[in-house]
Amino acid sequence: MDGYHGNYKYKIIKRIGEGGFGFVEKIELFNIADHRCGEYARKSLSDLEPELRDEFRRRFAREVSYQASCVHTNVANIYLCDLKSDQPWFIMDLAAGDLQKDIEKGTLTSSQKIDVLMMVADGLIYLHSLDYLHRDIKPSNILRFKDGIYKVSDFGLVKNLDKSSESEVITKIATAMGTAKYMAPEISIAGDYSKRTDIFAFGVLLEDLEMLENPGVHKVYMKSTARRPPDRYAEVQEMRNELVAAISGEPK
């Protein structure tokens, strides 16, 4: 199946993933001269029931807007989109894998695990600098690309702290769709999100990567996943600094 958008043509190769409200396809992209630009990923909104369609189209448009506004090495890029289509979509870089699959394979070295954490931290620091809360940090949303770079992806639940008009429906969706293991206690209790809820989820990655045998890293883990938000790090940069010190064996 071929599709066109502006001066570009794309050919769908196969479906490579799907979730509750969308799916991802591997595509080939061609420019106006029919030159092959390469393989990319296209994410589309699924067909939805009429009562859900408008709300989820708004959610999808917001996802595209937020992710497309990001320009950072450790945040997945968006290149093209069509939000007016009956089935809205956007095109982004094609990942070679994700952190969840890499953890399951058990092939990451200690050095690679540290690199992953630093890249995720840098991506999250950047998002927070834009007043974005990711709200769904977990291994499957951290994509690995062929150059070995890991990038934060999936902006479906992202919230802009500058905007007070976010619908209650989307907040409820975020609470319902979040993965329990990575959700701070205040989310399930009161639906409260903050930088500290992203920090909680990031802290859980230390456990996923089996790095808690290091006493310093374990201390960072305990602080980042503390039950009370005020007991956690206030900023990802602070957590990153202490994590680097713990890994290098330097005193705080």
UniProtKB/TrEMBL annotation:
Annotated ranges, domain Protein kinase: 10-252
One Gene Ontology MF term: ATP binding
Enzyme superclass (EC): transferase
Protein's organism: Pseudomonas fluorescens
Cross-referenced InterPro entries: CC_SR_Kinase, Kinase-like_dom_sf, Prot_kinase_dom, Protein_kinase_ATP_BS
Database matches in PANTHER family: EUKARYOTIC TRANSLATION INITIATION FACTOR 2-ALPHA KINASE 1, EUKARYOTIC TRANSLATION INITIATION FACTOR 2-ALPHA KINASE EIF2-ALPHA KINASE -RELATED
Pfam families per the UniProt record, alphabetical: Pkinase
CC terms in the record's Gene Ontology section: cytoplasm
Protein name stated in the entry: non-specific serine/threonine protein kinase
Taxonomic classification: Bacteria, Pseudomonadati, Pseudomonadota, Gammaproteobacteria, Pseudomonadales
Superkingdom in the source lineage: Bacteria
EC number per UniProt: 2.7.11.1
Keywords: ATP-binding, Kinase, Nucleotide-binding, Serine/threonine-protein kinase, Transferase
GO biological process: one example: regulation of translation
Residues reported in the UniProt entry to bind ATP: K43
PROSITE patterns: PROTEIN_KINASE_ATP, PROTEIN_KINASE_DOM
